[in-house]
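TASK: fixed-backbone design
INPUT:
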């Protein structure tokens, strides 16, 4: 009688700077690593596998893992690039949100400063004090009066 394979242990890792999401599936006979992009070098892949082993995610035997080109298939490690699993877990949505925030916050500050300047009369009111006809004449508007004492 055939037995069903055991359910894998699954771990998710996100690398926003590389815009890559990894899903590590640990089976009884090996490890599958699914990546949304092929952004890891061979050396970084090997290092990542050794890190997984040293942190206890996969068998301790993988701490002395040989380079991917020289026997990774015989050791039971499969590195699969699968762009279809790039959903909300990918780093693109987070980068877009961060970029929009970087634009929105300074724009809101500039708008608040402009509104403040316009409402206090420093910008955009078009009001200018013209030369006076008689010394001591009161000029101004909106409750502001100036006395010309220059003549």
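OUTPUT:
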């Amino acid at each position: 009688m055939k037995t069903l394979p055991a359910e894998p242990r699954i771990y998710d890792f996100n690398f926003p700077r590389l815009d890559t999401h990894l899903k590590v599936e640990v089976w009884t006979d090996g490890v599958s690593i699914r990546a949304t992009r092929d952004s890891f070098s061979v050396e970084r892949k090997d290092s990542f596998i050794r890190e997984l082993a040293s942190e206890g995610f996969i068998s301790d035997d993988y701490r002395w893992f040989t380079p991917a080109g020289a026997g990774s298939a015989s050791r039971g490690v499969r590195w699969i690039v699968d762009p279809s699993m790039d959903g909300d877990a990918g780093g693109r949505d987070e980068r877009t949100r961060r970029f929009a925030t970087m634009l929105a916050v300074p724009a809101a500050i500039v708008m608040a400063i402009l509104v403040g300047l316009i409402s206090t009369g420093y910008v955009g009111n078009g009001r200018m004090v013209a030369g006076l006809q008689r010394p001591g004449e009161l000029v101004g508007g909106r409750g502001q009066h100036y006395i010309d004492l220059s003549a």
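COMMENT: Residues 92-120 form the longest helix (29 residues).
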